[in-house]
Amino acid sequence: MGLESKKFEWTLPVPNVQELSNQQLETVPARFVRDDVCGVINTVPSDDCLPVPLIDMSKLANPEFQELELQKLHSACKDWGIFQLINHGMSDEILRNTSKEVLEFFQLPLTEKNRWKQKPGRFEGYGQILVASEEAKLDWNDMLLLTTHPIQNRELEFWPENPPKLREYLDKYSEDIKQVAINLTRFFAMGLAIEGQELCEAFQEGGFRVKMNYYPPCPQPEKVLGLKQHTDSSMFNLLLDCSITPGLQVLKDGHWYFVKPIDGAIVANLGLFAEMVSNGIYKAPLHRAVVNNSQTRISIVTACLPNSSFNVGPAKELTKAGTPPLYKTVTVDEFFSMFLQSKKLGVPVIDTLKISC
Ligand code: OGA
Ligand code: NI
């Protein structure tokens, strides 16, 4: 079932970042200061000349435009590993109202939000990302994390009942985003020229997890990260940026590029499973979130995974003709056991999955 069913013995309590932000401090506590990023944010080049690719899903589905749009998708996956999806089929009404409900949730007093607080050693609920040591640097971010699919895995004790319509909108949002994920998987397979049916079926019963990120203003934004650089452990993550302030950045050719929010678009970024299935033709990009000193930013991020017994590994069509598989094949469940193991050891999980030639 992925991470949700696993227990963590090594999580430590973390301060609530929204409360810290409300204290109007002049400097941030030392645990948030990242010496490694000082100044880096200022070196981001002007991204006007290199915007993250834009993919039109209605063209992918239209025989007249499909071939060209598939080529664009393939290049976007190869060159960036991240792109913005438009005409994805989700209604503006659902996107707008889900964002509104999520914002209202975060605006509730802490005691109220804490009714749905993470439980010790558990993964879901309202709180912060799990940390393993007192020395670990902290992200300038609070979150609400919920499993939405398979439906029988929902832990409703963590689904807020306030604001009253949040549950209903999350339910609708997650059904629709699941459909986007299934459609995208089909085109992903077409772009790679691999058999897509089994993969799409694996998403029908797939694991979907929604993480609502809350990045409050920070007195020293250049010293912290909203979310440290990482790759996603999923096939792909689908992100709805609920703010107009850019915060998401992706690493490409040694530079960090902002992914500028486009109203109504969904940002799709490839995770490690996509890298493995494509036998390294596509790479899961490193990305991170930065913050600023005046605006709150909220994102709703859905991690999309095939069902837990699905074998993730290089597609057979891509390992014929003298090209050896570059990655092991493991089930989704095995992947997450390896993920936890490698996190404890401090090594990237993908390194334990690479086959050295
Ligand atoms: C994530 C993520 C970026 C953002 O939650 O995995 O990359 O901008 N979020 O919130
Ligand atoms: Ni991510």
Question: What descriptors fit this protein?
Answer:
single chain, 357 residues, alpha+beta, Jelly Rolls, 8-stranded mixed sheet, 10 helices, binds N-oxalylglycine, binds nickel (II) ion, metal ion binding, oxidoreductase
Written overview of the protein:
By secondary structure, this protein is an alpha+beta fold. It has one domain: B-lactam Antibiotic, Isopenicillin N Synthase, Chain (Jelly Rolls), CATH 2.60.120.330. 29% of the residues lie in helices and 19% in strands. The strands form three sheets. Strands 1-2-10-7-12-5-4-3 form an eight-stranded mixed beta sheet. Strand 8 and strand 9 form a beta hairpin. Helix 4 crosses helix 6 and helix 6 runs antiparallel to helix 7. The longest helix is centred in the middle third of the chain and has 27 residues. It is globular. N-oxalylglycine binds next to strand 5, strand 11 and strand 12. One of its GO terms (molecular function) is oxidoreductase activity. Keywords: Iron, Metal-binding, Oxidoreductase, Vitamin C. It comes from Dovyalis caffra. It holds the Pfam family 2OG-FeII_Oxy.
Topology record:
Blueprint: H1 17-22, E1 54-56, H2 57-60, H3 66-79, E2 82-86, H4 92-107, H5 110-113, E3 125-127, E4 142-149, H6 166-192, H7 197-204, E5 207-215, E6 227-230, E7 236-241, E8 248-252, E9 255-258, E10 266-270, H8 272-277, E11 287-289, E12 297-305, E13 311-312, E14 330-331, H9 332-345, H10 349-353
Parallel strand pairs: 1-2
Antiparallel strand pairs: 2-10, 3-4, 4-5, 5-12, 6-11, 7-10, 7-12, 8-9, 8-11, 13-14
Bound molecules: N-oxalylglycine (OGA) and nickel (II) ion.
